[in-house]
Structure to design on (457 residues):
């Protein structure tokens, strides 16, 4: 087996972990959830969820990963003899594999939209913007096509493959150190552009003036589910990354940084999207199609007087989405790769290739399930919808529940304490609140999410 390499720098480690968190969840899902749940009120509740639930869970995964210093399946084996808890890591690997299967499909769409934005010169784009229904037809044709989305899936899986195969330091870390700053620059440029759109005032008011009359129990559950997905919690991704952290990494500090960056990016995505959406009179609760159907024409109309600016902004937006998606896919890819390489003593190249091929197979099936294979149903849903539903509503939540229970109640308390305080380098009393939340608050809330996820609540 090849020697295990850790992240080489603190900066690279934080950027890679933030890269896992920042993805479709922030730029595609968050504005949709905020739009559906009344804007600012949702954001406040979301941030509270990140603080009370997200941060303790991130720390819990970090503790397991760094204490065990191995992939997520082995990690629980190293920390407990109890065979029940050992399954937690395996469940995470299966969940990651399934999420990758549909994530790579949506990633593929971002690639298709990026190429389309690049290939549509301003004059044609202006013409297209005048045709109502153009983008919904484009989206429906793209997603139900047999060939193009599958090619995009393969292209995306290969991009992730070539990063992962180079290893943790030379692949994931180096790539994140270039891509994440690029992503921040694009975000800032797009936010600035957004302030100059005609709907800026209305969009920002929607985003920042809370209207609590819209808040229901459902809002709370949406915010919790969003926090889970967006922070990459519940499937061993953070645990695997933490196994490459050095002994002097402050786990709580890193969790705060990652959650802070992730929340900031989500809010910035809102600042980019809502002013543009209000500029052209689309309702902010246009739903999951916001980014792929409403937005392409929104940029055209919002910057109608400056066609080249509209052209540049749409290219930048889809490139941003592509970068964010790729850094998340890479983190998903690493989980089963590390497992195969370490548990089956494979070369990293062989393990990566097996994972890439399997992702291409699942991704292709998911993609075709929206077109030629639409009749193939699992529990009454298409393969794509089924994987999305089972992983986000059931597996991630069950995984999160097991992790919090294990760290809060089952793990050796000395190990937990050592990891939290870096062997006494930080005072225990400043970190004890994490354990209190992990024991009492987080399991209770996760149980509620689970009941709602399976439709009982
Ligand atoms: N957090 C990622 C996003 O926001 C998705 C993800 C989930 C990545 C689970 C890794 C693990 O898009």
């Amino acid at each position: 087996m090849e020697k295990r390499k850790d992240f080489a720098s603190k900066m690279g480690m934080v950027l890679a972990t933030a890269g896992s968190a920042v993805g479709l969840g922030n730029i595609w899902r968050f504005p949709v959830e905020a739009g559906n749940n009344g804007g600012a009120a949702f954001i406040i509740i979301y941030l509270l969820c990140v603080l009370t639930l997200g941060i303790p869970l991130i720390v819990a995964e970090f503790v397991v990963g760094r204490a065990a210093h191995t992939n997520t399946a082995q990690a629980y084996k190293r920390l407990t003899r109890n065979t029940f808890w050992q399954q937690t890591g395996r469940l995470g690997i299966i969940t990651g594999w399934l999420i990758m299967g549909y994530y790579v499909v949506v990633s593929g769409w971002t690639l298709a939209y990026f190429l389309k934005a690049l290939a549509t010169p301003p004059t044609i784009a202006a013409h297209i913007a005048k045709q109502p229904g153009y983008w919904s037809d484009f989206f429906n044709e793209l997603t139900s096509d047999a060939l193009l989305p599958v090619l995009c899936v393969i292209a995306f899986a290969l991009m992730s493959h070539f990063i992962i195969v180079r290893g943790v330091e030379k692949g994931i870390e180096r790539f994140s150190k270039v891509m994440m700053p690029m992503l921040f620059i694009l975000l800032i440029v797009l936010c600035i552009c957004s302030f100059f759109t005609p709907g800026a005032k209305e969009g920002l008011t929607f985003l920042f003036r809370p209207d609590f009359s819209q808040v229901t129990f459902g809002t709370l559950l949406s915010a919790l589910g969003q926090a889970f997905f967006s922070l990459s919690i519940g499937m061993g991704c953070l645990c695997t990354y933490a196994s490459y952290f050095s002994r002097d990494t402050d786990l709580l500090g890193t969790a705060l940084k990652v959650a802070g960056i992730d929340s900031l990016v989500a809010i910035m995505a809102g600042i980019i999207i809502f002013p543009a959406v209000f500029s052209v009179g689309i309702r902010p609760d246009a739903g999951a199609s916001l980014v792929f159907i409403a937005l392409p024409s929104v940029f055209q109309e919002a910057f109608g007087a400056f066609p080249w600016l509209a052209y540049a902004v749409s290219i930048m937006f889809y490139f941003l989405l592509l970068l964010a998606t790729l850094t998340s896919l890479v983190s998903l890819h690493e989980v089963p790769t590390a497992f195969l390489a370490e548990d089956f003593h494979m070369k990293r190249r062989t393990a990566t290739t097996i994972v890439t091929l399997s992702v291409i197979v699942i991704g292709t099936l998911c993609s075709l399930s929206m077109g030629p294979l639409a009749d193939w149903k699992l529990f009454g849903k298409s393969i794509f919808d089924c994987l999305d539903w089972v992983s986000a509503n059931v597996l991630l939540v069950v995984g999160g529940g097991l992790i919090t229970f294990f760290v809060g109640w089952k793990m050796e308390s000395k190990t937990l304490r050592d990891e939290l305080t870096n062997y006494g380098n930080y005072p225990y009393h400043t970190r004890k609140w994490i354990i209190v939340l992990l024991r009492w608050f987080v399991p209770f809330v996760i149980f509620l999410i689970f009941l709602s996820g399976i439709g009982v609540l």
The chain has a mean pLDDT of 90. Residues 20-21, 23-26, 99, 229-230, 232, 235, 237, 328, 331-332 surround phenylalanine (CB under 6 Å). Residues 38 and 399 are 29 Å apart (CA to CA).
